[in-house]
Design brief:
This protein has 161 residues and is α+β, with helices and mostly antiparallel strands. Helices cover 42% and strands 11% of the residues. It is built from 6 helices and 4 strands, in the order αβαβαβαβαα.
Length: 161
């Protein structure tokens, strides 16, 4: 029996979830087909040939598959309707399967390859209002650093940023 796809955004990493919510709000014509993925579902997808990898970013809360609401099946990755969705995703720090591999055009994943502890710190900082999760790999300016430092010291003093 096929393990069900989890469409809820709740198990996504908080700062990635925030970006996916922005993508969905900008493009109301699309919806989530699958967000977080269990080990059992990934094994099933590999066995059936629907996935080519052993561990998916879905399992880490860093990927979603989306579809157009009016389409019962995924349009081809080369379908031009994907272009504005891909552009918005790229702006939000989300990579697309078509751009990465030239297939899997409905797959959208976090563009940043951070270490597990870096993701944990990003989640904590977003959840506590210290940052909004801007590009974690971009160079930081001194004013931005001072702003983050002020929010962090406010968090230490008051328990909130």
């Amino acid at each position: 029996m096929e393990p069900k796809a989890d469409r809820s955004l709740e198990k996504l990493r908080p700062w990635f979830r925030q970006r996916v919510e922005q993508l969905l709000a900008t493009h109301p014509e699309v919806a989530v087909h699958e967000a977080w993925r269990s080990e059992e579902r990934q094994a099933y997808l590999r066995k059936t040939g629907a996935s080519k990898i052993e561990r998916s970013k879905h399992q880490d809360g860093l990927a979603v598959d989306i579809h157009f609401k009016e389409a019962p099946h995924f349009p081809k990755s080369s379908d031009l309707r994907w272009d504005p969705v891909r552009r918005t995703a790229h702006h939000l720090g989300i990579d697309n399967g078509w751009d990465l591999w030239r297939w899997d055009g409905n797959h959208f994943q976090c563009a940043y390859n951070l270490k597990e502890w870096e993701y944990d710190f990003m989640d904590w900082a977003v959840e506590n209002g210290i940052t909004n999760g801007d590009d974690p790999k971009s160079p930081i300016t001194l004013p931005r650093l001072m702003g983050l430092f002020k929010k962090f010291t406010n968090y230490i003093k008051n328990g909130k940023a």
